[in-house]
Specification:
- The relative contact order is 0.14.
- This protein has one domain.
- By secondary structure, the protein is mostly helical.
- The protein starts with a helix and ends in a 19-residue tail after the last helix.
- The radius of gyration is 18 Å and the shape is globular.
- Helix 4 packs antiparallel against helix 6 and helix 8 packs antiparallel against helix 9.
- The longest helix has 29 residues.
Length: about 180
């Protein structure tokens, strides 16, 4: 099982849960989680053990967020298409993705992961610049990954899928259908 499939299992993103997570509000309120978590942990030097309260709140929001919002009314939002592209990417073992989408997501995942050691080290030694550098690298990689997932979704989904129903068309081994023009 790929790491992205394991993460989806941790956040219980199966079936209809992806539709809730595809709501732009879900995506845009999830983006600040890494800096909020760093800030919550950073408070340990000021408020000691009470810093576990903001850390717990941020972690609880990270778990609740993917199901906290209704499915989107439209899939024309960049964030919605990005999340639904992640569902396509997660199923790449069963349904191959187009060749042009096979390298960038892995590289961007690696870029995102490269920021994590800087974040951890910066928080441990209380070096704000190191933590901020790590956050910048991690978040740039993640946002660029979401952008590539939106393009992947556009490439494998029939043109009418975004307007007829909030449910994504599932690509099949015989082909995804005509590509939707990019907005």
């Amino acid at each position: 099982m790929a790491i992205d499939a394991k993460l989806a299992a941790v956040f219980r993103l199966k079936g209809d849960a992806w539709q809730h997570h595809a709501n732009p509000w879900s995506v845009y309120t999830r983006i600040p989680i890494p800096p909020l978590l760093v800030a919550a942990i950073w408070t340990r030097s000021r408020i000691g053990r009470r810093s576990l309260v903001p850390v717990g709140l941020v972690c609880a929001w990270a778990v609740i967020n993917p199901r906290a919002f209704a499915p989107p009314r439209s899939l024309h939002h960049w964030a919605s298409r990005g999340v639904l592209g992640e569902t396509v990417w997660a199923k790449r073992k069963e349904v191959p993705v187009p060749p042009r989408h096979r390298v960038a997501p892995n590289l961007l995942g690696a870029v995102s992961a490269l920021g994590v050691p800087f974040i951890v080290r910066g928080v441990v030694v209380s070096n704000g610049w190191m933590a901020l550098f790590g956050l910048a690298v991690q978040m740039a990689g993640k946002l660029w990954f979401i952008d590539r997932m939106a393009v992947l979704y556009d490439d494998v989904t029939p043109a009418s899928a975004g307007s007829a129903s909030p449910l994504p068309a599932v690509p099949t081994a015989s082909g995804p259908g005509p590509a939707r023009p990019r907005p």
